[in-house]
Write a structure and sequence with these properties.
51% helix, 7 helices, Rossmann fold, alpha/beta, 227 residues
Length: 227
């Protein structure tokens, strides 16, 4: 056994010396290739269930709005928030969804994404009886899994921007939901930074789902949606 290991080590060393620059190049490119392939995989798997057109969007009982802060660090309106809420209101008024779940982070008394989304939707004319707040949507994974497991919805429309929707829809389908996604209006001014984060978030999602088997931080008792 020891002799076999020694021969294997000698062979690998010899192989590395012969192809050292190819090996170094491969190792240097490996992170980039991982990110590239991970992103291509998620987009290809989700592209047929992510919609831009309201007219072509299938009707679903529930819309799930993924949370984000209503304000930027500088105090300006966060357009990601604004456009997601407006998209949800439009889908409701066009009878594409009958009820809206707003799911986001509620980390402290002064930061409450679901409450802000709820208030914005009511201002847009959505009846408060048609809105349910999910205070434990700490991550995209938590929001989509809780929609199925806690709010008991297998058939729903995710509402966020396009770059985010591919990952959200992929996660939802992985956990067995018959989810689709609708793309809220594109945000030009903040796109580059958000895309850069999303490239890495997609790879992390694949690790979470297929290797780490990550679950939501909190589930809790089942909640009935009044549809």
């Amino acid at each position: 056994m020891h002799s076999g290991n020694h021969l294997t080590s000698k062979f690998l060393i010899k192989l590395f010396r012969k192809y050292w620059w190819q090996t170094i190049l491969f190792l240097a490119l490996l992170p980039f290739l991982t990110i590239l392939l991970g992103n291509v995989w998620i987009v290809q798997k989700s592209k047929n269930i992510v919609y831009n057109s309201v007219d072509k969007l299938p009707e679903k009982p529930v819309g799930l709005v993924l949370g984000t802060s209503n304000r930027l660090v500088n105090g300006n309106t966060n357009l990601f928030f604004k456009y997601r809420v407006e998209a949800a209101a439009e889908l409701f008024k066009q009878n594409k969804i009958k009820h809206i779940i707003v799911s986001g982070d509620n980390r402290n008394h002064n930061y409450n994404e679901p409450r802000k989304m709820y208030q914005a939707l009511v201002k847009l004319g959505i009846p408060d009886s048609c809105i349910t707040l999910d205070y434990a949507g700490f991550r995209t994974l938590d929001s989509v899994v809780r929609c199925k497991e806690v709010f008991q919805q297998d058939d729903f429309t995710i509402i966020s921007q396009e770059f985010h929707n591919y990952r959200a829809a992929y996660i939802a389908r992985y956990f067995g939901s018959n989810a689709i996604a609708f793309n809220a209006k594109h945000v030009i001014s903040q796109t580059r930074r958000s895309y850069n984060r999303e490239y890495l978030a997609r790879v992390k999602a694949l690790l979470d789902l297929h290797f780490l088997k990550t679950k939501p931080k909190f589930l809790g008792e089942k909640i009935n949606i009044p549809i």
